[in-house]
Amino acid sequence: MTQLDEAIARYHRLLDSENYRDLQWADWLHEELRARDLLYSAQPISPVLRPHFLTQRQYANLTKAAESLHSAIDRVESLALSTPGLMSRMAMLPAEKMLASVDPGYPYFAVTSLLDASIHNGSMHVVDYAADTPAGVAYSEALTSLYYDLPPVKEFRKKFQLTKIGGIKPLLQGLLRAYKEFGGKSHPNIASSRS
Fold it and tell me: What is the CA radius of gyration of the chain?
């Protein structure tokens, strides 16, 4: 049994223990998801009672794979934009083609993007790519904080070291870098809104 398998088994034993069978903690989690507007189509964005556990090595491998995929996407976009024959084969309206050809002022095509992926046994399966959805970063960081403070996770952390992975700070750094490369001189106001 690997250390990761042992950790998952330990967490499941905690959930089956007398301390957590009453599920008050799970009710609190769902209430917090709703209170913090962590919903998709009026449903909590996380329907599970266990966060994903990854080893540091798995996380590094997943990060490298995601970076490689993003790099490939950038190359395909660059090739498509520089090849009129490819552009003509895309089902884009003329206005969309015109907007696609505008130089954004920074060297990459997407400042924020999201690989919609699922992780199973440390393997990542990408199901979608969206170039304009930074909300996933904020959702992920909010979920990380919620799960980290759940009673069974707190007890789990007594035996296993967990690291919270944040994303908002790198997202803001990326936005500021793109703004400066675009030619921005002052410090912009960056805010979020709820819809």
Answer: 21
Helices (H), the chain: 3-16, 24-35, 56-82, 84-89, 94-100, 135-148, 151-156, 168-182
pTM of the model: 0.76
Instruction: Retrieve residue 85's tokens.
Output: 């024959």
Query: What is the pLDDT, as a whole number, of residue 25?
Result: 92
Chain-centroid distance, C-alpha 154? 23
Q: Where are the domains of the chain?
A: 3-182
What is the torsional sign of CA 92, 94, 100, 101?
positive
Q: Which two tokens stand for residue 158?
A: 């007594």
Cα 136 from Cα 103, distance rounded (Å): 26
Spatial neighbors of 54 by CB under 8 A, at least 6 apart, are 4, 62, 119, 122
